[in-house]
Write a structure and sequence with these properties.
Shape: globular
Structural class: mainly beta
Number of strands: 13
Helix content: under 10%
Low-confidence stretches: none
Strand content: over 45%
Radius of gyration: 15 Å
Amino acid sequence: DSTANTVSPFSYAEGVGNSNQNAVSMWFQKNSSLKRMIYAYFTYGDKYEGADETHLEGVWYHVGLTMNGTGVCLWMNGRLSKSNSLPENTTLTVKMPGLLVLGQDQDVYGGGFQTLQGFTGDLTGLIWLKRAISAEEMSTLYKTGEVAGENLIRGSNMVAHGGAMVIGEWRNS
């Protein structure tokens, strides 16, 4: 079963009524005994845009995902790994209300969890900003763990054991 080898460390679902619940998600897929793929996606309508990268199992990586409205970037250890541009005349936004869940993909808003998609591992220094950061800022974040800007989330050491951890729901203020 291929889903047993594909797990989601986090997902952000937009509010009830949205036809595509996961606005942002990340997946790790096991390709061999030592290599895994990291997939990161932003969705818009019935389409998605993302990036992927191979990494070794059991090795710590700093992974960043940014979206600036017209493109998506995946960062590994402070360096740009992959970037994709959206089709012309397409804009990408993350809407509120929304729900961030660690350790699982949301098949429906705040639920629909599948045991085999549960992430087990450590997430350290999780930061969710209200803006995309530059290459220089991503490098600094990798080296120092610090970045300027208003944090929606800033977590330190979180351990997932295959279950869902609801972090919070955001609404427009």
